[in-house]
Amino acid sequence: MSRTSNAILYKGIITGVLILLMMIPALFINNLVGERKERQQQVVQEVSSKWGSGQTLSGFFLVLPYEVIHTDAAGKQTTERKELTILPETQQVNSIMFPEVRPRSIYKVLLYKTTVNYDGRFVIRLPREIDPASVKWQESRICAGLTDIKGIEEKIMVNLDGSSIELSPGLPNKVITDNGLSAPLELLPEKLNQSIAFRSQIKLKGSEKLHFIPLAGNSLFSIRSSWQNPSFDGNYLPGERVVNDSGFTASWSFNKANLPFGTLLLDKGFEEKGFAFGVTMLQPADQYSKTERSTKYAILFIGLTFSLFFIIELMQKNPVHPVQYVLIGIALSVFYTLLLSFSEFIAFDYAYGLAATATITLITLYAKGHFGLWKTALIFGAVLSCLYAFTFVLVRLEDTALLIGSIGLFLVLALVMYGSRKVQWYGKPVPAA
């Protein structure tokens, strides 16, 4: 093996080691992105704690206390107090969400106000094992569950059987939910097996998420808003949905056949999260997630750029010093800090364009200064432009990112192999094809 081939081998090894070393700044940048993202989440939580968190509404239900008498072997009687929960027989729930984007420092927090209208009816029934005479009708309560009472904008009134009742914070038990409001209700035994209509309007504030729990025999829910980026989540997807430039509308329907509970609950615990559904309003641009995805392609930029410098220095016999490789690698790494900082103030697409233009210009001028030819420098500029454009497409894609990325990398490898076919790796002329 000649001295020339040895020199090329050693230079190739040094270049490969430098490529791996330059991944260290990429890891630090990735941690920086995570810190900024965490800071954004802290700001969102801080504002949400003062405004109102994501709301989950269980709707209205009745709680009827009753007594059960137990007799032991000695004939001694003891009285145990229990509670029967009665869910609506039917209900219709309509919600209108009004989104609000509040700036906080350099961040934007997505909040909303909503007006929720309930319209339904109860049917007062008792299970066979409950004696109507054991029911404490005068101690009954009407209840409504919601996550954060801080978000209540107006007092909650419910019209029940023609009577207007104001609800106050607190629930008689946690069978349905942990948080909510209730009010005493003087039911009469004469209401047994009768239908009682109810109606209410709830005005709430919340953050990002609005969920409901279908606590009724038969129910219909609808949500509409001017927000254009909804995510329908929870345990049930909407039966009908429309999302367009003017906002979204969605509806859900439930009946006794597709819910694993009836309208009478006897001291039975209820896992509300297992039945919650609704919508989460998404921010149209999450710059931190996109920046984080961009950093995953740092090895591609550094590896291909170093390889291009290595091949051209061999072809032009104009060696590039390892220190120069390090400077080029740092310039490629600074792209991500520029992208991160710019995207906190302007849209991600514009931030990407500015950061990429600055980096391409810097490296192109540096190549011109070293090789002395604009033709060579423009080759570097064109290759980097294609790389940044390719990465931008991958960042914007989600489901097909792996497919497009794999095809793109294959084509890049093919071009590198084609471009390096005339490199004299052993210091000897390459035979003409």
Explain what you see.
The chain crosses the membrane at residues 12-33, 297-316, 322-343, 350-367, 373-395, 402-420. This is Inner membrane protein. Keywords: Membrane, Transmembrane, Transmembrane helix. Pfam families: CreD (PF06123). InterPro entries: Uncharacterised_IM_CreD. The chain has 433 residues and is an alpha+beta fold. It has two domains: 3-40 and 288-419, no CATH class; 54-283, no CATH class. The chain contains eight helices and 18 strands. It has helices at 3-21, 23-51, 287-295, 298-316, 322-343, 348-371, 374-396, 401-419; strands spanning 55-57, 59-71, 77-86, 90-104, 107-123, 140-145, 157-160, 163-166, 168-169, 180-185, 195-206, 209-212, 218-225, 230-234, 240-244, 247-254, 264-266, 277-281. The strands form three sheets. Strands 8-7-11-5-4-13-16-15 form an eight-stranded mixed β-sheet. The chain has a six-stranded antiparallel β-sheet with strand order 9-10-6-2-3-17, with no helix packed on it. A hairpin with a 5-residue loop joins β2 and β3 (77-86). α1 packs antiparallel against α4, α1 (3-21) runs parallel beside α5 and α5 packs antiparallel against α6. The longest helix is centred in the first third of the chain and has 29 residues, at 23-51. The protein is elongated and about 105 Å long. The mean pLDDT is 81.
